[in-house]
Write a sequence for this structure.
């Protein structure tokens, strides 16, 4: 982006260098990495926390680790330090998820999972060890962070939709929360990923916003027996066995996490504020945990749903949670119809792509918290500090150039063309109908092409259940063939081949394997259906095998959208790549916002501040908005966003900051502006002068205004 645009993207990494003070001579031997001789030497990966103070108070400046240490024998030792960026190199993968997702069962209802960029951001954060809602508990069978989607990070979603029937919503609503996002208005059912017996310990956890004013339930079903954690509009937690209240607890103001633990017949409700209440009841013997359901009305505000079987000593693990991640992506991110699949992408690469698309920079703050904040959110903050050329600014360099001008802004985005069904009748991939000899093995790789995504792939469940009926309806995945002689006559191949099913190689690849046994003399095995098989509908005769089907295929195409605001002719256009993030098939609201936001800042010239050396203040942080005040020297007030800070500590503490100008207001009044305020709107300079005081220079006149 040109320098005048108040929009940042990508990660802003914090780095530094420490020159270690020399200690007293306690040995005549040198300190080296091979032999420390009883002295301390900083180790790679060792945590570093830096504070700065004024002799009375201290403020954190940096949290990170030792990256490398170097020195010389008998000389100084210095270490390079970095924030936690290396933690973001973990590879992440995810399957394709549609905002209105195909059912998990043949002919079932669509799953209103919901989807937004924030979901992908949160999943990447969590994979790297940074959490807005509590990390997955030990022994978890379900975990749903609820960050722009009801899709679980663990467990299997079975049904999902909106609780309310008055509107057009098909999934949960998203709302802001102190930790990032929370949800309301949903009814969801999940299949637990693990086993919990009635006599086992079981734990239900939820995060409840201080804005919660509705009704929420989280239900663990043992057959027809229900264990419920409910939270009412007064933020009262209620534990129930079927319809009987076992124990209740009022959540304290300002505390947001509540856990129900059932162990050895004792039911304990506890919050992260320490409030505790107990009761007793016995879950009847019988079925193991079979399903988990959860509901919330429109006034509820919840997140971080979990059900677990905690190991001894690890109960109430979520109550010690402290948020190590936070996101607020603003108007340039929102709902999206399809989350594309990705396989083994470095999290930092994925996050950078989303960050650039949504104009939302991310960085580690002074406490080591990973943050991603939308540029519009940063821009609209109230200033936290005023710096002046009289007291605080030692140097301010500026530039006024036409190089950042653009004639127009075009947003390029990836548009999903959807083929979605409640049935497994969407053709995803098909083999070539190859011929095999006796005792031959064949493996066939079905890989999702670039520019496509597949969802809810059938792994023979439909064909096994539906048989010939499903085949003639064009449903399900199929593999097989027939025997053919040299004259082209065919016979059934039953007993002459073995198909090993489908292996999932990755979220984007499947592997078919088939092997022929000893074939009759003069016969070959053909991977297809016969041309004249009377049991098959005509359209499926002579069909090549294997056939891979599922319930959704997405084909991505590139589209563009131009800004409504244009600049002078002759300047280049600016193209912004928004990718699939925030793309809906029904509208281009997000893309238009991005185009117009950028165009409003690049279609007219604007001066920039290229360097500003200031009186050091350890309280300044990335993302702060400040006021630059210079009423006499420059005659201007500037509102600016801090996008970079360079601190140096040696004999003195120095600080240089990089800023993007949000607004600039001149404090001088031109003669034309002054003239327009006069009653008749027009006076000569002689008439102005006659108004006195006389004599008066133009400088004196200007100061008086």
């Amino acid at each position: 982006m040109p320098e005048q645009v108040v929009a940042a993207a990508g990660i802003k990494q914090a780095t530094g260098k420490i020159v270690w003070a020399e200690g007293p001579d306690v040995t005549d031997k040198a300190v080296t990495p091979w032999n420390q001789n009883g002295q301390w030497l900083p180790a790679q990966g060792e945590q570093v926390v830096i504070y700065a103070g004024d002799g009375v108070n201290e403020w954190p400046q940096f949290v990170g680790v030792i990256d490398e240490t170097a020195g010389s024998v008998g000389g100084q030792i210095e270490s390079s330090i970095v924030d936690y960026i290396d933690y973001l190199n973990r590879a992440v993968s995810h399957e394709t998820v549609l905002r209105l997702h195909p059912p998990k069962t043949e002919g079932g209802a669509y799953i209103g999972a919901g989807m937004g960029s924030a979901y992908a951001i949160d999943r990447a954060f969590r994979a790297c060890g940074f959490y807005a809602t509590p990390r997955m508990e030990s022994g978890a069978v379900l975990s749903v962070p609820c960050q722009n989607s009801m899709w679980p990070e663990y467990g299997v979603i079975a049904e999902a939709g909106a609780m309310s029937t008055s509107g057009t919503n098909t999934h949960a609503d998203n709302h802001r929360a102190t930790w990032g996002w929370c949800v309301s208005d949903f009814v969801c059912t999940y299949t637990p990923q693990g086993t919990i017996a009635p006599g086992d310990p079981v734990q239900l956890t939820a995060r409840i916003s201080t804005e919660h004013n509705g009704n929420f339930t989280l239900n663990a079903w043992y057959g027809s027996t229900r264990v419920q954690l409910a939270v009412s509009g007064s933020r009262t937690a209620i534990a129930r066995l079927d319809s009987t209240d076992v124990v209740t607890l009022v959540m304290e103001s300002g505390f947001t996490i509540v856990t129900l633990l059932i162990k050895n017949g004792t039911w304990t409700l506890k919050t992260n504020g320490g409030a505790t209440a107990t009761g007793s009841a016995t879950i009847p013997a019988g079925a193991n945990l079979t399903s988990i359901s959860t509901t919330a009305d429109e006034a509820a505000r919840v997140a971080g749903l979990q059900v677990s079987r905690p190991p001894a000593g690890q109960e109430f693990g979520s109550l010690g949670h402290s948020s190590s991640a936070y996101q607020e992506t603003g108007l340039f991110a929102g709902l999206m119809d399809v989350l594309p699949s990705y396989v083994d992408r470095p999290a930092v690469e994925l996050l950078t792509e989303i960050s650039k698309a949504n104009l939302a920079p991310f960085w580690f703050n002074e406490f080591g918290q990973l943050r991603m904040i939308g540029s519009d959110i940063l821009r609209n903050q109230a200033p936290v500090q005023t710096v002046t050329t009289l007291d605080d600014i030692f140097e301010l360099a500026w530039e006024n150039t036409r190089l950042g001008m653009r004639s127009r802004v075009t947003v390029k985005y990836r548009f999903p063309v959807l083929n979605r069904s409640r049935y497994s009748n969407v053709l995803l991939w098909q083999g070539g109908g190859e011929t095999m000899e006796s005792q031959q093995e064949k493996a066939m790789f079905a890989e999702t092409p670039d520019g496509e995504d597949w969802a809810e792939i059938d792994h023979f469940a439909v064909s096994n259940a539906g048989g010939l009926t499903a085949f003639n309806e064009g449903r399900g995945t199929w593999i097989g063939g027939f025997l053919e002689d040299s004259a082209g006559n065919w016979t059934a191949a039953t007993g002459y081949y073995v198909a090993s099913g489908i292996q999932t190689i990755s979220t984007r690849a499947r592997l078919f394997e088939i092997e022929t046994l000893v074939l009759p003399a003069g016969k070959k095995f053909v991977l297809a259906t016969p041309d004249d098989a009377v049991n098959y509908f005509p359209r499926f005769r002579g069909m090549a095998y294997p056939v891979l089907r599922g319930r959704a295929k997405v084909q991505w195409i590139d589209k563009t959208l131009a800004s409504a605001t244009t600049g002078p002719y002759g300047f280049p256009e600016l193209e912004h790549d928004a990718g699939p993030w925030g793309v809906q098939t029904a509208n281009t609201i997000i893309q238009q916002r991005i185009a117009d936001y950028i165009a409003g800042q690049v279609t007219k010239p604007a001066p920039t501040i290229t360097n500003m050396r200031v009186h050091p203040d350890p309280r300044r942080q990335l993302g702060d908005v400040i006021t630059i005040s210079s009423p006499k020297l420059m005659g201007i007030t500037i509102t600016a966003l801090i996008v970079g800070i360079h601190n140096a500590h040696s004999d003195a503490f120095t600080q240089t900051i990089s800023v993007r100008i949000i607004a600039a207001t001149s404090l001088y009044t031109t003669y034309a502006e002054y003239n327009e305020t006069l009653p008749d709107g027009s006076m000569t300079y002689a008439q102005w002068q006659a108004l006195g005081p006389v004599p008066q220079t133009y400088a004196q006149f200007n100061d008086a205004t």
Remarks:
- The chain has a mean pLDDT of 91.
- The chain has eight helices and 47 strands.
- Helices lie at 117-127, 347-358, 375-379, 461-472, 589-602, 671-676, 685-690, 698-704.
